[in-house]
Design goal:
single chain; about 425 residues; alpha+beta; five-stranded antiparallel sheet; 13 helices
Length: about 425
Amino acid sequence: MTFCAIFHYCMSDTHVKFEDAISALSADLRAAARALRVRSDCSKAIIRAQSEKELLDEICRIIADTGGYKMIWIGYTEDEKEKIVRLAAGIGIDPDYMKALRLGWGDDERGQGLTGQAVRTGKPAVARRIPTDPAVAEWRRKDAAERGYASGIVLPLVSAERVIGVMALNSASPDAFDPTESELLAALADDVAFGITALRERQARIAAEKALRSGREILLTLINNIPDTIFYKDSEGRYIFANTAKVNQAKNYSPVDIIGKTVWDLYPEEQARVFAEEDRATLTGERGISVWEEKMTTRDGNIEWRLNTKVPVRGPQGKPAGLITIGRDITEQKRAEELLRLSIRDKETLLLELRHRVKNNLTLVSSLLNLGMNELFDDRSRDVFMSARNRLHSIVALYEHLDRSESLNDVALHVYIKDLAEALY
């Protein structure tokens, strides 16, 4: 063979190898560009998604349409006991088939594949030539041949350092998912995990806000329908909140008139000064929770009595932030107490008069009996008078003993008998 022939042969072989290298590089670049487009489109879907299901369905669609991958599915690792991945979304896969596969991360055969490896390690698991790879389980090689895919990758979805699910992609081309493509898809999986977490946090926040609004409405309904006045003032003494009872108690004031005002705007100066001092003492901690009865004059000149409870509210650093006041109208109770006091006083006056009259009458009768006994000379008549006098003495002694006792429960019987004996004998 001549030199020229040898030269031409070598150049031809180099050219073929060069073209093969260019072709392989082009394929890798196309795969990388495809993965980048997939990630870009998925990022937009993550921003637009309003629900978790909407997000996962759109992610699977983009991966299939833009990426050209087949048999794409996303599953969650929720069943810690069975260690089975639950299918959440997919394209080109039958849910019943997926359920029958029982893919997971347990110790059985179904847990030793790419899915189990990705869940346990928290890293992508790749099989680039499934039909001929002896490391791939026989059932997986058979499944790949039946369904027309030659390579696959399972990407963990990691949130807060915990694998919450997996994203699986398959390709009909062997040797797919080279390191560059796998790295880009792993970044996509991180984006999807972030989107899932963000949606869950948003849904949890929405649920919490809804519960908070519902609780606030229930609390306001309760506060506005109890007869006690409830209001909140800030540390400057301004009314920030007042319930319906407080507004009604203010009478000529509306809620708009009360909010933002102070006691100096709503009450006479002398009364406002008392209220302001009570607030100051509660806020500064001199009294802590304060409970007291208060007499006040309304704008129309009526007298009201209130039982007030003031509770200080502290800020994050323990500084006074405001105070809550709960007031109960005890005007009727005070009137009833005054009527009862007057009634008791009148009854005491009457009882004093009755006691004086009873005692005088008993003494008078006893004296008359003594005088009558002096005019009797037969023993039988004297005995009758003596018995009557002794009975009167016993009544007088009992009456005086009860009168001296502070309580009827503390009457000393032996003292009464002793006094009676001395009076009779």
